[in-house]
Amino acid sequence: MKKTLIAYYSLTGTTKTLAGKIHKHFPDSDLYEITVSDDVYPTDMYEIADVDERIKQKKTWPKISQLPDIQQYTKIIIGGPVWGDNVPSPIISFLNEIQNYQGNIDEFHTDVGQIRHYEDNFRRYLGNLKVDAFFDANSDSLDYWFEQQTAR
Length: 152
Description:
The chain has 5 helices and 5 strands; from the N terminus they run βαβαβαβαβα. By secondary structure, the protein is an alpha/beta fold.
């Protein structure tokens, strides 16, 4: 039986809302929220980007919430916000944790227009993983993306 994991990180709730819509579209899916300790990021939105950049420079990836058994899934759909044209550290932590995963991976992201190099930046952190499809919530049609998902 094909089973899908929708794993997402959301700071403000925007990505969480989209993850919920995707979860409803895939009846065989489980929803997993990637979380980090409350003390990783400040509450000020503008300071978050600076803190996240320091995390990336030092490669001190935040510890994330307990993962489900990812080997039970034939597909993982990973979602998160775009921060300054880059991948948030909790998503990088998740990618690091699933390096032995052999199934299909798709990606979705929410943004405020800072995505020029986002997909390239995301690919930099994939390691042994390969993404089949990207979905930009601000410019792509969700219905079209669902059609493409169903066809694969």
